[in-house]
Amino acid sequence: MNNFTDLLRAHNLKATPQRLEIANTLYNQGHANVEELYDTLLKKFHSISLATIYKNINLMIENAFIQEVKIPNAKSVYELTKETHSHLVCKKCGNVEDITLDLRPVCDLAMHSTEFQIDKADLVFSGLCKKCQ
Amino acid sequence: MNNFTDLLRAHNLKATPQRLEIANTLYNQGHANVEELYDTLLKKFHSISLATIYKNINLMIENAFIQEVKIPNAKSVYELTKETHSHLVCKKCGNVEDITLDLRPVCDLAMHSTEFQIDKADLVFSGLCKKCQ
DNA sequence: AACACAACTAATAATCATTCTAATTTAAAG
DNA sequence: CTTTAAATTAGAATGATTATTAGTTGTGTT
Ligand SMILES: [Mn+2]
Ligand SMILES: [Mn+2]
Ligand SMILES: [Zn+2]
Ligand SMILES: [Zn+2]
Q1: All residues with CB under 5 Å from ion ligand 2
Q2: What is the pLDDT of residues B8-67, one digit of tens each?
Q3: How far apart, in whole angstroms, are the C-alpha atoms of residue B26 and residue B37?
Q4: Distance CA A20 to C1' D28 in A
Q5: CA-to-CA distance for A88 and B93, rounded, in angstroms?
Q6: In order of start, what are the domains of chain B with their CATH numbers?
Q7: pTM here?
């Protein structure tokens, strides 16, 4: 059980028990959607409000403590901010995995063939995980 | 003004005036979200229902006539199905552009470093378009 | 350790987004 | 031209997210 108090404060967020539990849940599960976060936090905070989940997710995103990952045909999941990486999603079981790839060559190619100045590349692979194929 | 009657039928969709207009709108604008489609169709069909937009979007996606593109910090946009491609989104003006890139090397790399069987790669670049930078 | 206060939480109301229902209309096959 | 399954519409219903408000708490300061 990690202690995220300092990390939260470093992002200008008060270290409330609810926020610490969101951080721990994302640390343990890697990625979770709104409903999963709510269900998990309900176990520890019997009377937590969904509004608290939403409010904290939004604030934590604003302060770059967490990030949203948009997934084809599924609800967004959230994760602790870490080094830039891409995602693999299993179409069957919904499992989400991280993968670190060097996308600079692709970004450079894209920048050379358009007039865009690119500063982010969100890449999501869809397919079947080992268990499901 | 393209005629999408046959293309709709090829996708097992009746060629209703509303659907033809959705097809034309996407053909002309490239990408549009639900609200933009509704506003555009309202000009031609004064009493069109939002339910018609949603119902058709869903059915057209099921039948692979159109596709959804999920975009960071914005509503999804929809586009006519065409050759696989990636997207560039301007953070400032929201403009969405297509870009065709060969992602096979990246996919192969991903498949070799995980146990996933990958069959799709959704890539969205974020940055500033020429006008906005 | 106690204080002060801005920030936070919980309840719930309000709003926004999407889907459902049922009556009417229509595309297209024969 | 008829027939009929499917589509459209209006509006109700549901689901998701945000806003409001009153009471509570984390944290810097004394
Ligand atoms: Mn991740
Ligand atoms: Mn496109
Ligand atoms: Zn799987
Ligand atoms: Zn722009």
Answers
A1: B 79, 98
A2: 999 999 999 999 999 999 999 999 999 999 999 999 999 999 999 999 999 999 999 999
A3: 8
A4: 20
A5: 29
A6: 5-80 (1.10.10.10), 86-127 (3.30.1490.190)
A7: 0.95
